[in-house]
Structure formats: structure tokens, C-alpha cells
Sequence to fold (644 residues):
Amino acid sequence: MIAVMTIQAQSRFGVTGVYPVSSSGTALLTPMESLPWMNLPLKDWGFMLDAGAGLNGDASGQLYAISLAKREGSHSFLLRYTPGYIREFSLVKSDQYLSGTGGSYLTALLQYRELFGAGYGYEFDEDFSAGVTLRNFSRKTEDNSVGVVFTSDTLYLLSEKETVTRSRWQFDLGAAYRLLPGLMINLSSHNLYLISQETEGDIYNFSDAVKFSAGADWKPFASLGVSFAGESDGSLLAGVWWSGGAGKVQYTAGSGWFYDNNSSDASGFQPSAAFRYGNAGLSAGAVIYTKKRTSSQEEFERNRITSLINDGYSGDRFTISLQYFLEARSSGSLTVEDVTVIENIYTSLAGEYAERPFASALVRNLSGKPLKVRIGSAIQGYHEQQIFSPAVYIPSGDTLRILVYTLVTGGYNEKKSVLAQVKFSFYAGDEGEPEEEIVKPVLLYGINAWNGRTRDLNYFIGRDIQELGSRAKQIISDSAGFAFETQQARQFAYIRGLYQTIAKGLSYVSDPLATSDYVQFPLETMQVRGGDCDDLSVLFAALYESIGIETALIDYSASSGMRHVTVMVNTGLFPEEAWMITSNEQKYFIKKDIYGDDRVWIPLEVTEFRGFNESWEAGAERFSREAIQEYGLVKGTVTLIDVY
Fold:
């Protein structure tokens, strides 16, 4: 099932407000006006009670509806009893104005109500759902008139009352399709097919105008959604909602704006908020109209009744809804109580998520024996094939939180961040179909996005390593500036010569906040001829690594929160050979290489472009001061991260 937002134009106006709908069952059950495609946010059973009260002097409470829902696989079922979907009018027969009191005038009393409804929905796949709804309405008319009775000497006027009840059945269809990750479109009908006892031409009939509603729901971010719906008669609704939570706790807040093209008075706002803990949920909202609720009898007879909960005669009101979900399936071996996305995915980090979980799931073993549980995940538009996390065993009757891992393939090249859907499939044992499937949104950051962990710059360093190696070797072969006095100092000569060549023409672009969310790849930095300290460190580390020269990243983290990254390079010299490049012991650092041997390493300040000696001097001075003299390596304010 896909995550959508419920919105209501006039035929789709619901009393409970604006909420997201989630296949995980963390959202609230919604009335059939709001979800005509009937893809209910349930795992098993759901129960909802809607009540409310007026805000314009009439504070009497009213029970609107009682709903019972069931989901079985791809099938959804809903039954609803609506004692509070009722409207009553008293029409003065001697003039054309609505009146709440009859006085001495003759009146006609009208009562409109919806008795009950039923719905069925089918989920064809994770992108497409469709459903049908059936609703029963009735209209009772009490027509008062005066009868004349003559006696021999007297004329009597007698009040007479005629009561007529008419009912009708209303069938409608709805469908929803996920066009793109985070973008869903929907289409539904109103009065598509009617079976009615009403007399044709009766001005007090329900409106029988056939209408269609089209809408779109867009989630630009994981916790924020916006929606729009329009009807064929010009009625509109727009909405926005925000949601969040963790584990059993989920919460949502939103507001909708509605406009009825048939009645300029039937327009206003519908703020709402909801909270759910485990299997129980509570929501509250209000309907606030922008104009005083008045309408003429002429308009009433012309437009008829189109909605029992929102028209030109409705008043401001407060609503409250209680929900309870029964989600354990005794027929299955497991049930999923919660799925949480721990971390959105940085696509530049390649295989990082094979060892670092991006999500977790709370799974309960319903079987009478220890159960092997496997979780597969597939990210739409990224890798459609399921990636399985390590299987775990859950003791009988126990609940366990399982970590979910994935693999990031190297072929992803999207620069912009994309909101995608990840489908989690839960398997009992080694074979068979998944017992449950849950879809959650996840943000795929663009390939240049960085999480701020210095060690993860390794993934940027390794991306262009082959092409950089070719360029570096070509520079060495074409240049005469790589002379070295001894064979041992050959590697130092390469370090010096490459820096002199590449640094020419580069410029440093300072990051004033010392934050990091975007890092250039080495070839990008060479193309634009500049970057900040992260970009330049990635470039020079990749350049040296491409020809087999070991490097390490130096991460300076000051107490003020300012961060700076630069590079340390392995000269290949043993400690006793350091004299070949300098007599100043503060200009180098003894560090083990990949083979465990002590070697001479030199710090470089990659933002210094006047020359190699100036870069070495600045890098060595800062490292000696902050890392050695001020004990930065011991305190943790300076960190060395090996490039691999």
C-alpha cells in the first residue's frame, strides 16, 4: 500500500479532518468520503467512533458515526452506521424564507439523513488501488395543510399532516495511482449510479447531479505533505499536514481549506490533529466557516441537498474521533508492530549500509515455537530487487527489534535528493511468500550529499581514482620538476611536484558555518578549479592515493564547533631518513603505514596555494600546535582518519 493524504472537496468532505494514510497502520482510519478508493490503512481490524458539538451557541453533543473496518491481504472492507449524518429544515409555505419556528404559518418539515454505508477496496499492487462505496440515504417530508369541514352552521379549519419517506442507494467508484515516489493522483465519483424511490421533479429531493473529483497528494519531505482536490462543479480543497513519531507513538497535524462553488457560504478551514499510541488513536478537529451561515429558500430549492455535513446551512463545530486497531493475526506466524527509518540514505556511501542499519522493525512471534525471521527491503527507483538483512530467531511469544540493512549500488548518479518508497517484506522461515509487507518513505540524498562524518569522505576520495591515476602519471612523465636527490626521496618528490602542479589556479571557497552537506568529487573540483577544505582534501588525497601514496585525513574539531579538514601524506621514508627532507622535527610526524612500519608523514594545508613549501609549513605548524603541544590527539579534538 502507498502513503497518501486524505483530502475532501465537497462530496469528499469528512468530519475528522486532514490526515496522511499509511499502509503500516500508523495513521488513523478515515471516513469513506475521504478515501473513496478504499485502500484502508490497516493491518487487520479497525474501529472508529466520531462525535462532535457545535461552536455557535449550540454546544449539544452528537454522535456522528461508528465504523468497523477489516483488511485481509489486498482486500479492504468497511461498514459504517451514521446516526449523526442528519439535517432537518422547516419551510414556511406562505413565503420564501427559511424559519426555525412555524408560528401561525403552515410549514413543511424536511428531514434528510444517511443511515449506513459500506465500502470495498482492492490493492492491485503497491502503486494502484481502486474501490467501490455503497451508501443509503432517506428523506422524510411532513407536509402541513389546512382542511375545511362544513357543518350545518359552522365552518371548521383542521390542520392536516402528511408524512412521506423516500430512500435511495448511491454507488460510487474511486481509484488512486502513485505516479512518482511521493506523488499520488486520485479520481473518484459522486452520484455515479442511483437506485431511488424519489419522485422525479420533486424540488426537495437529494441532489442527483453526477460529479467527479480529481486530486493529487505530494510529499516533498518524509514528514510534510500537501494536497489539492477539485471537483467537476468547481468546488476545491487544499490541505497541508505534518507528521512524525517513533515506535508506537505517532502524531499528525494539518489543516485544509475548502470552497463550495455551489454556495459561497460553504467555504472555510478544517484544522485537525491526531495522536496514536500502539493500537489506540485519538484525533480532534474543527470546521470553521469564513462567513455567517445563511442561505435563502430559493437557493435551497435550486441546489438541493448535496452534503449532510457541509453545505450553506452548516455551522462551525468541533469534532473528536476515537480509534482502536486490532492488528494481531492469529493465522500468521508473525506480526509487525512498528517499522522505523533510522537514517535517510546517503547514496555516495556505497557499501556503508551493509554494516550500518538504515531502518529497524519490531516483530512479534505469534507461533508456538522459535521462529526464523527474514526481512527484505527494496527501494523504488533505486534497487527493485530485495536486499535481505541477516536472519534472526525470535523465541515463541517474544517481540524483537530487528535491524535492517541495504546495499547502495555504484551506478546511482542523481544529483538531487529524491523521496522514494522502500517496501519491507517480512518472511517466516526460508521459503514462502512474505507474511507482511509495509511501505515507508525514505529520502535518497544526491550523490554529493555528505553526512558530516570525516571518515565517510573516503567514499568521495575513491570515486574518480582510476582517471586521477592516469592524469597523475601523465603529469609526472611530462614534468621536469620531479627530480629527487636520492632514491629514498623519490616519493617525496612526487608529493611535492603533484601539489605544485595541481594547486596552480585553484581557489579556496570558505564555508563560513564550517558545516558540511555537499562535497565535490575530485574531478569536479578540478573542473571548477576550487572548493572548500572538504573538497580540496578529497582532491589531494585521491590524487596521491591514485599512484599508491598513502594519505590520512586530519580532522580539527575546535570547542567552538568550527571544523577543518586537511591531509597528511606518507613520504615513504623511515624515521632515520627524515633528514633527507628536513632538519625540523616539528615538520613531520611518525606514523605506521598499512604494513605496520613506522614512516615519516607530513601534514599539508590544502587551502594554501602559494606553493608546496608554504602548504607544508602551514600544515605542520597547525598540527604541531593543536595535535601535539595542546594534546589534541589525546583529547579527541584532532583525529587522524586513514584513507583506504
